[in-house]
Amino acid sequence: MSDKVFSVAIDGPAGAGKSTIAKSVSKKLGVIYVDTGAMYRAMALYLIREGVDMEDAAAISAKCKSADISIRFEDGVQQVILNGENVSGLIRTEQVSNMASRSSVNPDVRVKLVELQQKLASETSVVMDGRDIGTVVLPKAEVKIYLTAGSAVRAKRRYDELAAKGEKADLAQIEADIIERDRRDMTREISPLRQAEDAVLVDTSDMTVEEVEERLLAIVKDKVE
Ligand code: DC
Q1: Which alpha helices (H) appear in the chain, and where do they start and end?
Q2: For the chain, which has fewer Cβ within 10 Å, the N-terminal or C-terminal residue?
Q3: To the nearest whole number, what is the mean pLDDT of the chain?
Q4: Cα 212 off chain centre by
Q5: pTM higher than 0.70, yes or no?
């Protein structure tokens, strides 16, 4: 594998398995995994704490300036730091997901977090996942993957995840939510989710995690000498 700094950009809709795969592939490659969704979530947590109305774009633009977001790694696992506090354990709630989905459409939020992501990738090799990594954040990434799966498959995976935790869920409702989130992510004005022209499409609907991992490693080896 190359000694020079390289980037693997993984984009795709929610529930396609991006973070699971990005994590394992980064480990195999011996490079860091940057979860950009966690940064948008940390920003959302800050805005909630500040009492910002999620429909108030001007307030989001003004307030996001005073959030200092950074990441560090503990035992290879990304930790998100918000104004000096490690908030990694606080950003996976429904409330934060909803705020993140709204606040991530804000241009001032995006400019700030994209800058941080670009700085990280310029310093060290990364596997970075998100919605706009191959198209906007790292347009020159050596490897670009667009990971997707049918909405029914993604809904079933989420349903099984919740069931494993003993939580009750409605499969049809989960799929409806997924379709709505896809629509919002793909039709937003700034940095919508779309496959970069030079990205390799990997549809994981009928693949196991191991198969996806193997496929991605093969793509990386092919592109990074
Ligand atoms: O991948 P996730 O669910 O943790 O992302 C949280 C939110 O942030 C989600 O609404 C999509 C948004 N996001 C984004 O707009 N751009 C990224 N690069 C990553 C996430």
Answers
A1: 18-29, 36-49, 57-63, 94-103, 107-123, 151-164, 171-187, 209-223
A2: C
A3: 94
A4: 17
A5: yes
Beta strands 77-82 and 69-74, pairing class:
antiparallel
Using CA atoms, how far residue 28 sits from 85, 130, 196, in Å, is 30, 20, 24
Dist. CA 69–CA 59, nearest whole Å: 18
Domains of the chain: 6-29+135-225 (3.40.50.300), 32-124 (3.40.50.300)
Residues paired with 8 in a beta bridge: 127, 143
From 10, 20, 36, 178, give the residue whose CB has the most ligand 1 atoms within 8 Å, as the site to mutate. Answer: 36
Burial 61-82 (b: 16+ CB within 10 A, else e): eebbeebebebeeeeeebebeb
Beta bridge partners of 82: 69, 85
Q: What is the pLDDT of residues 145-171, one digit of tens each?
A: 999 999 999 999 989 988 998 988 899
Q: How far apart are CA 181 and CA 101, in angstroms?
A: 8
Q: Three-class SS of residue 155? A: helix
Q: Is 138 in the pocket of ligand 1 (CB under 6 A)?
A: no
Check pocket membership of 106 for ligand 1, CB cut-off 6 A.
Answer: no
Ligand 1 atom closest to 113 (CA): 18
pLDDT of 1 over the 70 cut: no
Which atom of ligand 1 approaches the CA of 104 most closely? 15
Residue whose C-alpha is closest to residue 185's, from 177, 174, 193: 193
